[in-house]
Amino acid sequence: MQIKWELVVFDAPDLEVESRFWAAVYGGTVEADDEWHTVSVDGRPKLAVQLAPDHQPPEWPDGTPQQIHLDLIVEDPQAAHDEVMALGARLLKPARDVTSKEGFQVYADPAGHPFCICW
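and the corresponding structure tokens:
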């Protein structure tokens, strides 16, 4: 699998607050959609914020685990799917249309941590 770039995604109930915070931390800019904001630094995506209205903050390290996932953007989603499944991933949510120009599938690693393969 050839990963073009990696994007950490934070779930948040308030996209504006969260994305402005991280843009300020990184000295970046925000590209905003209704349910997704991308924070870019020097024109390159650094991280994203996904709308999660029911998000409950983690109580980590003394309570519930951290809540974060990785988006892996790939050239060949089928090859990436085959590779991660062979490594022990579980498919949690298949793409609506795996032949579409853009899409994603949600997986869990062997310990259950979620990540997405995106194209």
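(Above: one complete record from the training split.) The chain has two helices and eight strands.
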